[in-house]
Design goal:
Oligomer: single chain
Order of helices and strands: EHEEEHEEHEHHH
Shape: globular
Strand order of the largest sheet: 2-3-4-1-5-7-6
Number of strands: 7
Number of helices: 6
CATH topology: Rossmann fold
Helix content: 25-40%
CATH superfamily: Peptidyl-tRNA hydrolase
């Protein structure tokens, strides 16, 4: 059975730890905590770990290349584990979705997200699943770069925690359920 490969996008370094752009890292860390997965360095610039339960293998990873070069790490991971993007799910923040919303898609464009753009460029395809996590605050964003690299506001934290919990459940379900079922269950 092929493993499910979940890559959470973010930026390495303590200064980015609680920023909006690091939701992918937060989800991977939460999955690692829940499933007792230890991350280790791969042959490229990524951390990865695996879990096997009931004959199903889940591989999780965090590129350490910074967001805009995520594709290099993802391509290296797939080479290391001798796999393709067919079983890849990328977890990423999405400024076009309202705060707290989740969207799972089987494929698609980068939608302006530089991490997804990098992965598409390196893999040469848009044919991989993605779990987008909404970060739009419902008001105008003056400077997008500053916004995505800023922490969540105190009044947003409950919504964010709920969204993270839902994303973790969706990722755990992706080892057992078809993507179309996940889209029905989690797209809100």
């Amino acid at each position: 059975m092929n493993p499910t490969i979940v890559v959470g996008l973010g930026n390495p370094g303590t200064q980015y730890r609680s920023t909006r752009h690091n939701l992918g890292f937060v989800v991977v860390d939460a999955i690692c905590d829940e499933l007792s997965i230890s991350l280790k360095w791969g042959s490229g610039e990524f951390l990865w770990g695996r879990s096997e339960r009931d004959g199903r293998i889940l591989i999780v990873a965090k590129p350490m290349t910074y967001m805009n070069a995520s594709g290099e790490a993802v391509a290296s991971l797939l080479r290391d584990i001798h796999n393709t993007e067919d079983h890849l799910l990328v977890v990423v923040d999405d400024v076009d979705l309202s705060l707290g919303k989740l969207r799972i898609r089987e494929r698609g464009s980068h939608g302006g997200h530089n991490g997804l753009r990098s992965i598409i460029d390196y893999l040469g395809t848009e044919d991989f699943a993605r779990l987008r996590m909404g970060i739009h605050p419902g008001k105008e964003i003056a400077n997008l770069s500053e916004f995505v690299l800023s922490p969540f506001e105190a009044n947003e934290r409950n919504t964010v925690e709920t969204m993270i919990e839902q994303a973790v459940h969706a990722v755990k379900d992706c080892t057992q359920k078809d993507l179309s079922v996940l889209m029905t269950n989690y797209n809100n």
